[in-house]
Amino acid sequence: MWRSKINISFGFLITSFVTSQDFNYPKLPSARQLSMNGSLNNMTYSYNNEDTRGPSNWRIFNATCGGFSQSPINIETSNVWRGKAPPLFMDYFTKPVVAITLTNTGHSVNYRLKFIDSAPNRLIWNGMNGKTYIFDSLHIHWGNSCVGGSEHTINGHRYLAEIHLVHFNAKYKYLEAAALQQDGLAVIGIFLETADEANNDGSNNNKFVKFLNNVRQPGQTYLITDTNGIFTVQELIKYEIREYYSYKGSLTTPPCSESVRWIVAKRPVRIYPSEWNLLNQVISFDGRSMTGNNRPVQQINGRNVYEYNYVGNYRHKFDRILWNIP
Ligand SMILES: [Zn+2]
């Protein structure tokens, strides 16, 4: 019943699967609608726990948000299954990008990359015989320097922020269809942590913050074609992902569909406070600062969490699998 009307806004995993009978809040405009009309009316959920639409009440208007395989989680490193695996294979990692559509969705800032060619941008999970996921977009969850704003935490430690690279399983053709399937999505989480401003010589800045001033207001969209603001995925996350955690979970925003293979990179990306300030100036759909757009951690409920570390000596990146990744 809750799927009778589908209106998904992806690129940042906020969605509205609710019907008007289920829930009285207005429907959420899709990212594409936002791009077209550049405006927001209302939103179906918030991150403010004093609000009736806050995280502890999401389950009221979307029952899946109260499910048993929800995300994010706290990862206790003393309680993970350890395995060996090749680095993550992302064939778009170094591919040139010619433009980026930046959107303030009201809940996050979303980046849609236009690559130099139209070939599928693949993340291959579990080696050559594994599942193929197609890269869709990326977005960010962040907090302030006191409490942090990553969604996942490691041994209770919350990082400053977490970038999400959203992918959908290639067998489902497009993101909205995949999101309804148990094996539909794969999201890579990349933590951000603060770098020392004293070491900022301008040589290692993060391009993804440079045009945030153009989308401070909810609903604003900006097309980045300036080389100062265009980045490849490699330029964004700086390193090949060789060490990561993985588990089965959900979207971290309503409707909280339990369709996500999570891949959480261990190594954070560093960001200077002066860059960070640009994120803090972004305004949420409710007129507040968007800072704090992270869902509280959820119960693990017996799920296995795996930790993978790179082992070298591959003749070719994916010509053998050392450990069978579930
Ligand atoms: Zn997210």
Whole-Å distance between the termini?
31 Å
- Tell me the Rg in angstroms: 19 Å
The CATH class is identified as Alpha Beta
Runs with pLDDT <50, length 5+? 1-42, 313-326
Number of helices: 5
Q: Largest sheet at a glance?
A: 13 strands, mixed
The oligomerization state is single chain
- Helical content stands at under 10%
The averaged pLDDT comes out at: 83
From the helix content, strand content and strand pairing, which structural class follows?
Answer: mainly beta
Principal-axis shape: globular
Bound molecule kinds, no repeats = zinc ion
Could you tell me the strand content as a percent range? Answer: 25-35%
Number of strands: 18
The name CATH uses for the topology is Carbonic Anhydrase II
Order of helices and strands: EEHHEEEEEEEEEEHEEHEEEHE
Proper CATH architecture: Roll
Number of structural units classed as domains: 1
CATH superfamily: Alpha carbonic anhydrase
Keywords: Lyase, Metal-binding, Signal, Zinc
Pfam families: Carb_anhydrase
Organism: Polypedilum vanderplanki
GO molecular function: carbonate dehydratase activity; zinc ion binding
Topology of helices and strands:
Elements: E1 7-9, E2 14-16, H1 31-37, H2 58-61, E3 74-75, E4 81-85, E5 89-90, E6 97-104, E7 109-115, E8 122-125, E9 131-142, E10 153-154, E11 157-158, E12 161-169, H3 175-178, E13 185-194, E14 221-224, H4 233-237, E15 243-249, E16 260-265, E17 269-271, H5 273-280, E18 306-310
Parallel strand pairs: 3-10, 4-18, 13-16, 13-17
Antiparallel strand pairs: 1-2, 5-8, 6-7, 6-14, 7-9, 8-9, 9-12, 10-11, 12-13, 15-16, 15-18
The protein binds zinc ion.
Zinc ion binds at residues 12-13, 139, 141, 164, 252.
